[in-house]
Amino acid sequence: MSPPQLNKTYDPQDVEKRWGQFWIDHNLFTPKIEGPEHAYAIVIPPPNVTGSLHIGHALNSTLQDILIRWKRMQGHKTLWLPGTDHAGIATQNVVERQLMAEGSSREHIGRQAFIERVWKWKEQSGDTIIEQLKQLGASCDWSRQRFTLDEGLSQAVREVFVALYDEGLIYRGERLINWCPRCLTALSDIEVEHETVKGKLYHIHYPVKEKPDSFLTIATTRPETMLGDTAIAVHPEDPRYSHLIGKYIDVPLTTRTIPIVGDSILVDREFGTGAVKITPACDFNDEEAGKRLNLPSKSIFDHRAQIDTELFEPEDIDSDLKNRIHGKSEQEARKLVVEALENNEFLQKVEDHTMAIGKCYRCKTVVLPYPSPQWFVKIQPLADPAIEAVESGKIRIIPDSWKGNYFGWMRNIKDWCISRQIWWGHQIPAWYCTACNIDHLHFSKNPHASQQDQTTPLEASTMSGFIASDAIPIVSRITPTACSRCGGSDLRQDPDVLDTWFSSSLWPFSTLGWPNNHVDLKTFYPTATLVTGLDILFFWVARMIMMGLKFTKGVPFRDVYIHALVRDAEGQKMSKSKGNVINPLTKMQEYGTDALRFTLASMASPGRDIKLAEGRIEGYRNFVTKIWNAARFIALYGDGARKALPVSARSFADQWILSRLNHTIRDCTHYLEEYRFDHATSALYQFLWHEYCDWYIELVKPAFHDPQSEDAQSTRHTLFESFEIIQRLLHPFMPFLSEELWQAFPHSGTSIVTQPFPLEEKDWDSQTIEQDFHIFEQFVNASRTSRALLNCSPVQPMAFWGTSTSPQERTTLNTWKPYIVHLARGTVTLTETDTWSTQNVLRLVMGSITVGTTIDQEIDLQRAVARLQKQAQEKHKEATRLQARLASKNFTDKAEPDVIRESQTRLTALNEELALLASSEAQLSSILG
RNA sequence: AGGCGGAUAGCUCAGUUGGGAGAGCGCUGCCUUUACACGGCAGAGGUCACAGGUUCGAUCCCUGUUCCGCCUACCA
């Protein structure tokens, strides 16, 4: 096969399109199930079906793809299983917005039609992010793509739900939950984001019953909730108040009298006034206290977070206030209440107060603690084994430092609210017999009645909130047709759907065919590695571990690699509203996908966020171009016979680059094993640019320029051989460029995708050659510095002398002389300094090497003098330090012998260098007069 | 409030059995020398946040402080 013709410039877009399609056409990402090889599987963190590729996905997917391509090349049965999740609330929002634009609504068209509509949307737009992942080069097995609402995955969801219910680990109960009054659904604790805000602390006088003119003053941040107060609490050991416990108090603005109770858990004596109102229906802590103290709970808000006076007892509050406050939002209600308190002189003072409020993580609406019946997972029995799995090392979390976070959360975990009052998702497999639950189902009380078309079909508008918490559900894997208690056939399914994360928690095994005994499950489970961002450690990772352990009797994955979050160059979180979003697709177009991938991998240092500056992508684009141009060079001189010689028979340059390449293979493999993507990319960059291109390619040129060269055939072989290995080494990081080159150069096989990852060749290592190279490199560098100091152009031939203080190095210089002549450009005389010209010679020192040049033109030698002086100064400083150290008895008594010897050796070398530098400077000074 | 992480060159970051401080980008100077100006060559640039401690010796280990970030959280 003849060497390729490569275009002058690399066109990433063309290349990416071609090979992206080629890989898919040739089914290269689908593993072969049979065979003895080890399996290596990763399940993708399923992006939202509504999503489009953002930079976090790009990082996450790049890292997974590097691992997967690497393992695939190493010969494992490699599966990267892709897919999306149905993202209940987000997806429903998308379609609801469409309906709104059409002047319709989901309530208007009804549940079934709405769900059909969402499916239609999914068919049309749901694969956006999948297509974008393909563009990124993600080598997923697309034939196994999954969606959380697929039939198989839904079967898994139902199986898990029923099994947990039967075991008592799923239950339905009424309590305060986080309610988003915009999404109109319950949220789990971790779907609430806490934000610090500047609020007010209101001090309010509550008159003590039967003690006129006596007040108990409480402090609150939410004065409007006093309308739902059912007690006032003080600390039982607080001398200021303890005598009041058992007495009663009048709630201002109402006709209600409530008890004063003692509670040491709720009350912090130091905070506020030391007295706190209890509103069990409005606050999680108050709810707890209410349960402890057997207090009633009085709701005041409706599901839209508006005051609903219908919930109040008749004549309970001032009728004027009652009329004005009905239907008001929290903020408006607060204003009215504060005003009324002020007018009646109940308000003592208002202080500034910093506090945290909860917001819906999807829509940022302030979340309302809202009492309602919901489904929960009893979590502690699931969490305990999940803690153990990480403690015992059955699952590794990388970097290790996140383990603390994991344990902290798992040990304080609370029951998981899994029901959502939306329509898009897995509807809860629970049915209610209308006959048995006649008093517990209130389908007619439609809480949306005021908002909705009254003609809405009954079924569509029911909410789980109107199925009382004591209704008896029939929980079943298959849809029941008759009530097992009474035989009744009028069964209504619970209208709620499950939290999307419930189905996601089954992802590692539901996607592989569980609960059926699928061959994929047997082959690829447990998966090897899970790659994800910290933000979903709790949402997803922890829950997968719990569910995996519970239902598969094994861990879902062995390693969890947690990568950084990508921020902008200033370290700000990227957000649409800030306008600092970096769109990966745009960057892929501008710089090429390989450049973006390499950039992201290079910045993936553990435990640190990525501040992505555009300049970095540009830098790696340049790297891609550099490799391309190296390829062009090789192609240009590749035409001709190639001869494979044993390594020891090859040229010095060949031996050197093979030794360096071997190091790079070793390093790169090692770093990948450690998930050090940053080190792996930097090893590749350093080797390819600064060793392969800067030195090796320069060193082989003479062989090709000289038609008589004896080395040409062997060197040509080494050049091709090494470059082919480089392509394979590079492939996991730069799949497109490496494939383009691999296909262009002589090869056998379908694609680089399934070629073996480079292995070390032990006999390529040569410490001797590398040491020799170092001496040679110093000589060349000295000659180049001379050129720069003397203002000589790179092409102008110059005469150099050179030697070393070491006889061995003098031999080395002699054997490498042809290379020195080539790179120094000029004549090179290797003799002792006393034979050199004594006039007009600039002598530079690099370690043990001295290189001399004649000065044959009028130039400013001050720069040269300055350089020598500076070098001498630095060396002198170091020598002084070493001398002091060696003179110290403390050091010689206590330090390791190795360290002492090393210091002595170093000092000797420094002194030799200093002598050379002094001599050079003296010589130069004499020229200057 | 608690927990975790970070602070090293102008910028972004590496730097583990404690002993000579590094890379990329940017910057300065020279160079179009037929792989590459998205380039080559040569350079400049750092009290390793601050204060103590341990040690013969600390960017590294320990304690405290400051600043930044993140997570968790019931101080109304």
Describe this structure in words.
Helix content is 44%, strand content 17%. With 929 residues, it is an alpha/beta fold. α2 links the parallel β1 (39-43) and β2 (77-81). The protein is elongated and about 115 Å long. The structure holds one RNA strand of 76 nucleotides.
Order of the strands making up the biggest sheet:
6-5-14-16
- Cα gyration radius (Å): 38 Å
Total helical elements: 30
Give the proportion of residues in helices.
40-55%
Low-confidence stretches: 444-462
Indicate the mean pLDDT.
Answer: 88
* Largest sheet, strands/sense/barrel: 4 strands, antiparallel
Q: How many β strands by DSSP?
A: 29
Instruction: For the record, give the distance between the C-alpha atoms at the N and C termini, rounded to a whole number.
Output: 65 Å
Report the portion of residues in β strands.
15-25%
User: What class, by secondary structure content?
Assistant: alpha/beta
> Tell me, what's the shape?
elongated
